[in-house]
Amino acid sequence: MIRIKAGVPRSRRPRTTSRPRRRALALGLPTVWGAVAVGYKFGCPLAEQHGLGARIVTSAVFFAVGTGLIVHVRRALLRELRQARMVAGAAQSVLLRPLPPRLAGLNVAAAQLSADRGASIGGDLYEAVATEHGVRVVMGDVRGHGLSAIGTVAAVLGSFREAAHDEPELGRVLGRLDRALARHLRERAKAEHPASGQDPDSPVAEEFVTLLLLEIATDGGVRAINCGHPWPYVLSGTRVAPLSTADPLPPLGPFPLPTDLTATDCGQLLDGESLVLFTDGAEDARDARGHFFSLPEALGRAVRDHPVSPQAILRAVFTALLHHTNGRPTDDIALLVLRNERQHQRPLLGARGTARTTPTHPQPTNHL
Prior knowledge:
- By secondary structure, the protein is α+β, with helices and mostly antiparallel strands.
- The protein is 39% helix and 18% strand.
- The chain contains seven helices and eleven strands.
- The chain has helices at 13-43, 52-95, 150-166, 170-192, 280-283, 295-302, 310-324, and strands spanning 102-103, 106-113, 124-131, 134-142, 209-216, 221-227, 233-236, 239-242, 264-268, 274-278, 333-340.
- The strands form two sheets. Strands 1-2-11-10-7-8 form a six-stranded antiparallel sheet. Strands 3-4-5-6-9 form a five-stranded antiparallel sheet, with helices on one face.
- Strand 7 (233-236) and strand 8 (239-242) form a beta hairpin.
- Helix 1 runs antiparallel to helix 2, helix 3 (150-166) runs antiparallel to helix 4 (170-192) and helix 6 crosses helix 7 (310-324).
């Protein structure tokens, strides 16, 4: 039994007492180095001489002082960088929680790459939860990237994690997310413009989120609502095809949702097939010559010989992306792969042909 006592835990008391010591060292060491340099210059007779030997000694002293200051500043900066990365890692574990490797018979893998160097989180969001209505998945992309989009990501994900369990229909889940986003943007507008309220020129007024909601039923049936987001790709054997070619709704934020929010029937995810959800940073990535990254080709190479695990697909795609961009992506990139391993019996040929057509040469979906 764990008991919680009032007051500061004993294990954390030395941390509070060590802060003044660290601050004193941070200020004291440069002062000591400066005192050594000044004391040598004005108190040492050798510093007043103009001979070659005296000049060499003086140069060595000031070189040692400068080196000491540089080393001290470097250690302080590295300490602050480690602390910032720890905070970013903690924030990432709360916002983009690690997904379980298996979810209601689905093999799951996800990863996110931030465009801001040193940042662990950005403007992309994803989540997958098992509910009584089926496995529900969200993939989204907040306008912009990096640390400025964290608040919007938190608002959308927090609403989804509640609504996915509470609402029986995907349309009602989307309505909850839309209201949560609008409330978050109003609060940001009040904080940024407390006197006049919403400013038309404020970035908040132009904020939007592309969003894809998926529901995978126990029989493999897939239903989706797409708000300006790229459609996922289906990996069936060595074939790569878009999940749907239907026109998406507008992104969340700038426009009100339609009154009739009916999910699109996208057929079935058969045994051994995979869904690859992604943000537009993947297909918008360019190389040094301005050529876009071809995600379907990268997926095709990943499953060229035989079907592979979601984890292997992620490794292959991210390796190709980093190679294509020379390790410098300009936008946040998120990938989520779900593979059906429920071992359902494959239906007869043509059973899902009416629900989802597979073009001969699938092209990347145009984004809003």
